[in-house]
Amino acid sequence: MDNYLYAKKCEEKYEKGLEEVVNKINENKKILIIFVSGPSCSGKTTTTKKLCESLEKSGRTAYTVSLDDFYLDTKDTPLDENGEKDFETLYSLDLEFLFDFLERLCAGKPVYAPRFDFVKKRRDNTYTKIDMEDGDVCIVEGLHGLNPIITLQHTDNERVFRLYLEPQDNERFDIPSADVRLIRRLVRDHRYRGTDADGTLDMWKSVRKGEEKWIYPFKDTADATIRTGFEYETGVLKKRAFEVLGEIKEDSEHYETAKRLLAKVEKAEEIDYDAVPENSLLREFI
């Protein structure tokens, strides 16, 4: 099959799922807050953007907020059992500020969304005012978007919609969903965050542990799920994955993991980036 047609067919499944969610949200004009959650590299940023655009086209004003912007200053981040900064825990967020923000939002009062400066590792002094009118929605995106401490205790449950995202297994190449996301993260971190493969794999165990504790227990509470994996993405990421994983030396503790991932990726035919639509979720990683 032509790579462009192959990509189009894969993308259509995701777009259809997104369209169904938008229709479901628009059926209930009471919905005020849409929580978008999912594990690392499941496509939360792009899906939130697309969701916002689709709702705007349907006539509803939509605002977007990231839970990451509610992080405590890094110096105040709680420690895990090993004495390391735990950025995966719910308590890495400024919960007092977040709860007040959500309660004011549900009460129809103006709120001010923060911005976290990841370079300075603290909250910026810049705030964005959100003053919602009837029919408007606020999309809140982040790892903890399904946590009942947030979604039930500090919001009006009848006005909340919960959306869960996760790439499914890539059955064609026998790649489980966790590895689909890991390959995305390896490529993204290397290209955009200056992190080599060893660095990403060093963090991955903590990321997965956080997902098991803070995300997966609540995924069945979602009002809708969108599958955000693409069968053709393995071919798209193949060249870059080989470059990134190829840097891992034989004496690295992650060498066997790199070999395993490369064996999976090697099965795919390489697909040029040009085949990826400009508005594709995959652009978030390439």
Task: Summarize the structure in short.
The chain is of the alpha/beta class.
If you had to describe this structure to a student in words, what would you say it looks like?
The protein is an alpha/beta fold and 286 residues long. The chain has a single domain (3-284), classed as Rossmann fold (3-Layer(aba) Sandwich). 39% of the residues lie in helices and 13% in strands. It has helices at 3-26, 44-57, 95-106, 148-151, 177-192, 197-214, 233-245, 255-265, and strands spanning 33-37, 62-66, 111-113, 116-117, 122-123, 128-130, 137-141, 160-166, 224-227. The chain has a five-stranded parallel sheet with strand order 2-7-1-8-9, with helices on one face. A two-stranded antiparallel sheet has the order 3-6. A two-stranded antiparallel sheet has the order 4-5. Strand 4 (116-117) and strand 5 (122-123) form a beta hairpin. The radius of gyration is 19 Å and the shape is globular. 37% of the residues are buried. The model has no long low-confidence stretch (mean pLDDT 94).
